[in-house]
Write a structure and sequence with these properties.
- The structure holds 2 protein chains of 2 kinds.
- Chain A is mainly α.
- Chain A is about 85% helix and about 0% strand.
- The relative contact order of chain A is 0.14.
- Chain B is an alpha/beta fold.
- Chain B has 3 domains: about 140 residues, 3-Layer(aba) Sandwich (Rossmann fold); about 45 residues, no CATH class; about 140 residues, no CATH class.
- Chain B has 11 helices and 8 strands.
- Chain B is extended.
- The chains are: A mainly alpha, B alpha/beta.
- At the A-B interface, helix 1, helix 2 and helix 3 of A face helix 7, helix 8 and strand 7 of B.
Chain lengths: ~110, ~375
């Protein structure tokens, strides 16, 4: 394997790992707010690493610029969407889950 | 129904509602013949818990208040004015001005209403302007629409701002550059279509997308500092992501979520937006709401909370927008913000040196806060 291929493999593996963590978090975490944490953030890094792998594959070429722009837009839109979800939840009066709920409610996991 | 005329007044909790009610009552009293006043409250959210939901309850409460006001305005003397109140739209999901118009028109048809009196601040949609399209829809359905004259000016600033040649040039330049970047080649065709597109975009949007005057020096400084900020933010994101991955994959799921509220030391829209998005991007913290400088942040773990209040992100955002001097401001924790959400004496009792430093930056920010 050339150094480029190794770099691409590492980046892809990282991307897959963080996307996987996002999925696990979505299943394990207790309420809408904590799940939004997982779904929006780990995902950003996962997709970011995947796009970084794309950039490394193409080298100094136009697709790299486009991949960089994609990352940029994702970093602007992803937190905005997460914020919109959290704010909508707060506007609906959904109370955030706390550790106390778990003790009284007998645990979710 | 009553043979006389009827007035329909859609109500929503607004600063000018009281005056609107007074106007409608006065108008009804001055009219010849019997008048029925219909105050209706469109329930703007999907009720979650059936008919007893909190939203419907609030609507009823508001209508009770309006009925009391109307009685007050009608006074003791017998009049030929009847007051009726109703909640409408509770069974449908009201999403856009057309939906509001539909439920109001349906109510008007059922009750022989010919005139609608609108509160100038009536805007249950929150952000998008509802009134002009609503007026058009209601008029299209054959109803007379009038706006209640109220003293208080609307508090929303105008959407457009005065813009001159430099705003046009900035917008044209960035649009053209982006177009060519995506096109990837400098063929005459791309140059021509790009120039046309950029001209249209800049001409149409220059009053909306730019804010204040463009100062190239300041803008260049901000862009340069942004270039320093982005790698720092990326590093923070990676670090925090690893922490969160540990927590999520941990067998016992050691989370301790809580909501933190604090006043951030950033001013004007763009820095606040940047900080809010940076907080959300950093795993473990999620911006729920921002009002002016007041941030409501949901945090997943204790560590994320203390990192947030240690204020390194806030400091970095200040560095980008206000320069190096603003970095020396105290952190949220030093300003007396505590992780449990209560604020020990911050705001009114900020120490003197904090206050003066804050004011200095505020002056800087006012001179050109947030152009982009």
């Amino acid at each position: 394997m050339t150094p480029t291929e190794i770099a691409v493999a590492v980046l892809i593996a990282g991307g897959v790992f963080f996307t996987f963590v996002a999925g696990v978090g979505l299943l394990r975490l207790p309420d809408v707010y904590t799940r939004t944490h997982s779904a929006s953030k780990s995902d950003t890094l996962g997709a970011g690493l995947a796009l970084a792998a794309v950039a490394v594959t193409f080298g100094a070429d136009l697709p790299t610029v486009k991949a960089a722009l994609l990352v940029l837009f994702m970093f602007v839109t992803n937190p905005t969407a997460a914020h919109a979800i959290a704010r909508a939840a707060a506007d609906q009066g959904i109370e955030p889950w706390t550790v106390d709920d778990d003790e009284s409610g007998g645990g979710n996991e | 129904m009553s043979g006389g005329s009827s007035l329909l007044v859609p109500v929503e909790d607004s600063v000018t509602l009281r005056q609107t009610v007074a106007h409608a009552v006065g108008r009804a009293r001055d009219a010849d013949g019997a008048v029925t006043l219909h105050f209706v409250c469109p329930v703007s959210e999907r009720p979650l818990g059936g008919e007893d939901s909190a939203v419907a309850g609030e609507a009823e409460e508001l209508l009770d208040r309006v009925a009391v006001w109307a009685d007050e305005d009608l006074g003791e003397e017998p009049t030929r004015v009847t007051v009726e109140t109703a909640v409408v739209g509770a069974d449908v999901y009201l999403f856009n001005p057309g939906d509001y118009a539909d439920v109001l028109v349906a109510y008007a048809r059922r009750n022989d209403v010919d005139t609608v009196v609108l509160d100038p601040e009536f805007n249950p949609l929150g952000m998008a302007p509802l009134l002009p399209p609503l007026e058009r829809e209601l008029e299209g359905a054959g109803l007379a629409v009038e706006l209640a004259p109220v003293d208080r000016a609307t508090r929303r600033g105008p959407l457009t701002r005065p813009a001159g040649l430099d705003q046009f040039a900035l917008l044209f330049g960035s649009t053209f550059g982006f177009y060519l970047l995506i096109a990837g080649t400098l063929t005459p065709f791309n140059l021509a279509t790009g120039a046309v597109t950029a001209t249209i975009v800049a001409a149409v949007l220059r009053r909306i997308s730019t804010q204040g005057s463009v100062e190239l020096g300041q803008l260049a400084g901000r862009v340069a500092r942004m270039v320093v900020y982005v790698p720092y933010l990326l590093w923070e994101i990676v670090k925090a992501n690893v922490d969160i991955a540990k927590v999520v994959l941990h067998p016992r799921l050691p989370i301790d979520p809580a909501v933190v509220e604090f006043d951030a030391a950033v001013w004007s829209e763009l820095p606040a937006t940047t900080l809010a998005n940076s907080i959300t991007l950093t795993p473990g913290t999620l911006t729920v709401d921002v009002t002016q400088r007041h941030f409501t942040v949901h945090s997943l773990t204790k560590g994320a909370r203390s990192d947030l209040l240690a204020g390194s992100l806030e400091r970095a955002v200040r560095f980008v927008f206000y320069g190096r001097t603003a970095m020396r401001l105290p952190t949220p924790a030093e300003r007396g913000e505590t992780p449990d959400g209560s604020v020990d004496g911050a705001g009114t009792d900020e120490p003197e040196e904090v206050r003066s430093a804050v004011e200095r930056v505020e002056v800087d920010a006012d001179s050109g806060g947030g152009d982009e």
